[in-house]
Design goal:
Strands 1, 2, 3, 4, 5, 6 and 7 form a seven-stranded mixed sheet that branches. A seven-stranded parallel sheet has the order 22-23-21-24-25-20-26. By secondary structure, the protein is of the alpha/beta class. The chain has 26 helices and 26 strands. The chain has five domains: 1-98; 100-213, no CATH class; 214-305 and 541-610, 3-Layer(aba) Sandwich (Rossmann fold); 363-475, no CATH class; 615-773, 3-Layer(aba) Sandwich (Rossmann fold), CATH 3.40.50.300. The chain binds adenosine-5'-triphosphate. Residues 195, 198-199, 208, 210, 213-215, 218, 234, 236-242, 576, 579, 611-612, 717, 719, 745 line the site of adenosine-5'-triphosphate.
Length: 774
Amino acid sequence: MSEIQNNDLREEQERVNSVVKVINQKIKNLQQNTGTVRSDVLEIRKSFWEDVTVNTDEPDDIIETAASIKQQAELLSERERTHKHMDKNLKTLARLKYSPYFGRIDFLEEGEERVDQVYLGIASLMDENDENFLIYDWRAPISSLYYDYSPGYAQYKIPKGIIEGEMTLKRQFIIRQADIKAMFDTGVTIGDEILQEVLGNNANTQMKSIVATIQREQNEIIRNERSKILIVQGAAGSGKTSAALQRVAYLLYRYRGTLNAENIMLFSPNPLFNSYVATVLPELGEENMQQSTFQEYLTERLGKSYDVEDPFSQMEFLLSENEGESYFIRVEAIRFKSSLEFKEIIDQYAVKLSTEGLLFKDISFRGDVIISRNEISEYFYGLENSYSIPNRIQLVKEWLLKELKRAVKRERSRSWVEEEVQFLEKEDYMEAFKKLQEKNQFTESTFDDFEREQRLLAEMVVKERFKPVFARVKNLRFIDLTEIYLRLFKQTDQAVKSLPKHWSEICKQTINIIQNLVIPYEDATPIVYLQDLIEGRKSNTSIRHIFIDEAQDYTPFQFAFIQRLFPYSKMTLLGDFNQAIFSGATGSETVLTDLDIRKKEVETFVLTKTYRSTKEIVEFSSALIAGGEKIEPFNRRGKKPTVNQVEKTKLNGEVLEKIKELRSEGQQTVAVICRTEAESKSLFEELKGRIPLHLIEKGTVSYEKGINVIPSYLAKGIEFDAVIIYDCSRYQNESERKLFYTVCTRPMHVLHMFATNGISPLMNGAGKDLYDIV
Ligand SMILES: Nc1ncnc2c1ncn2[C@@H]1O[C@H](COP(=O)(O)OP(=O)(O)OP(=O)(O)O)[C@@H](O)[C@H]1O
C-alpha cells in the first residue's frame, strides 16, 4: 500500500472511530429514555383501571366512562408506539456501530464550491447536534449516485427535479466491528472486489441484503416509482429476489408515514422460500412484508370442505411416467384452464347465471329439509334481475336467516328438545338460571319458574344446534359452487371456438376428479374466480403493493385474478421464463410470456448479468437454454461441472462418496437434487443411517446447513454451495428442459451430475468443453 493510501486509511479509520463515538452516545441517551418510556408503559398497564372512572348508572355516565377508557387506551398506545420506535432505533444503532457504512462518494454539485462527502450505510445518522449527516441512508436520493455512476459526471433525482454535478471519488469499505477490513477506490463497476469476496463466501440458508453492492440495473428496479406493473425478466441468479426485497425496503423508506409493511404483500413459491428471505428486511431495519404462497390463499378461500391439490402434486403428476391418454388430456386441460380464454368462458357463464342455472343446496336440520334448493332458487330468480348476482345473493341470505329464525321457534316444542334438556349438564342449568335472573324473570315466589326454566333451556338447546346452520348460511354455503362449476363442463356451448381439441374428454375427466371431492390445482383458481363473480368480493384496499416472485409460475388466468383482487395495488413481478417449470411441462402460457398483460401500464426490465454461480457453472447452464448466450456471468472462477457416469446399482454409494468429498472441501450447504419426491425419499432412506442429512419436502418451512435432499421443483429460488444432480439421465423430455436448467443454476460454487444411462439429451447443446466427464 502506498503512503497516500496509508494516510487515507488512517483518516478513514479515525472517522469511523469518531462516528462510533457518536453512535455510542446516542445509544446511551436512547437507552435512558427507553427505560423511562418502558416504566411508563408498565405503570399505565398496571394502573389502567385505577385511572379510569367507571360508572354505568346513567346513560351519561356510560358515555363518560367510555371516553375515559378511550383516553387511557390512547395514552397507553402512544407510549407503546414510542417504545417500539425507540427499540427499533436502538437496534439500528447497534447495527451501525458494528458496520457504520459501506461506501463513500465525494460529489461537487453544479454551482457549488464545496465537495460533499457522502457516506452510505443501512440507515442515516446525524451528528451530535443533529445538524449534519454523518451517514446517509442508502435509500436517500443522493445515495443513488453511488449505485449509478463512476467518478465523473453524475446526476440524481430529487422529488423536484434533477441535481447534476461531478463525482470526484467513489470508495468502498468493508467494516466489521468498527474496524476497516478493506477499502477500495472504485472505477467503472462498483464492487468488483467486494462482490468477489461476498459471492466467494459460503451459501447461506437465509438470504443476505445486497445494499453494499447493488448494481446499476438492479438499482433502477429498486427505485422505480413510475410503473403500475413492473416486470423483471432476469436470468437465474441475476438478483431478482434480492432486488425485490431491497425494493420493499426502498418503498418503505420513500413512502414512510403512509406505507407500512402490512400494506405490502409478497407471493412466494413455497413455505421454504418464506423463511429463506425472512431475514433480509429486519437486517435492513425494516419489518417484513406480508407473505403468502398463492396456494395458501386459494386453500383459505375454498375452506375446509375442499381438498385442493397443491402445485407440487400437480408437478409430480406431470413428472410421472404414466403418460397414457388421460395424462395427455389433463396436460391439455391444464394448458386451457391457465388461459384467458377460459376466464372469458367463465365470465360469459356468469352472465348466463344471472337469469338461470345457479344451483343451491338444501338447508337441512336434523335430517329434515327446512328450505329446499328449489325454494332458494325460486326466491333468487324471483328477485328483480336487474340486481347483480352478488346483491341478490345477499337478499337470499337475509331471507334465509329470517326463515331460520322461524324454524328455531318451531323447533323448540319438538320432543327431541325436551329429551335433550333432560340430559343437560348441571352447568347448563346454572347458566339458564343466571340468564333468568339477569332478565329479572326469576323470583322465588313465581309459580311458573320451572316452566320458564324449561323454556329457556329448550331455547338454549335449539340455538346451539342451529349454530352451524346459521354459520353455513352466513358464509353463503347454501350455494352449490362445485355443481355450478361442473355444469360448465356439462353444457358449454361446443361451438365456442377457443375450446381445446379434446374438450369433451377434458369435461369428463374434470367431472370425474372433482366429484371425488379433490380440486385439481388447475381448477382451483377458476373456481375461486367463479365464486367471486357469484358471491361478490370487496377488493382488498389495504394492500398497496404486490410482489410476485417466481412470476413465471403464474398463469395468465391467475394473474388476472390477482389483479382483480388487488385493483388498487402496484405490482412488481419477478421471474425467468427459462425457469417456467410448470408451464414448461404443459406448454401453457405464463404471465411472463402472455402478451395480453403488456399494456401501457406495464414496464419491463431485463437482467442478464448473473451473480450466483461461478463462470464455469453459468457457461454450462446457459448452454442448456435457447438465448442462453445473452446471460453474462460474473467473473468468479471455479471448476467445470462434472458428469459422473455410474451403474444404477452403485449410484447411491457414489453419491455418498461425493457428498463426503464436498464436505471435506469445506462446502457447507450441499444439496442432492432429485427429480421427484419419490426419488428424494428413497435416497434419503438409504443414506440417512450413513451420514447426517435432511429431507426437504413440500411442507418444509426452513432448511439447515449440511446436506439436504430435495426434489427438483422445490429447489427453485434458493441456492447452495454445491449441488449434486442425482441422476441427469432422468431428464429426458423437452418439457423438462426448464426444470433441468433450474436445478443446474442452484449452486454457487460446485456442480456435479450423476448419470446412470448416458448424459441427458437436454445437454446436447452444451459443448463438451463446458463440463468434465468422470
Ligand atoms: N448486487 C449484488 N451484490 C451481491 N450479491 C448479489 C447481487 N445480486 C445478486 N446477488 C447474489 O446472487 C445470488 C442470486 O440472487 P437472487 O436469488 O436474488 O437471484 P434470482 O434472480 O432471484 O435467482 P433465481 O431466479 O435463480 O431464483 C444471491 O446469493 C444474491 O445475494
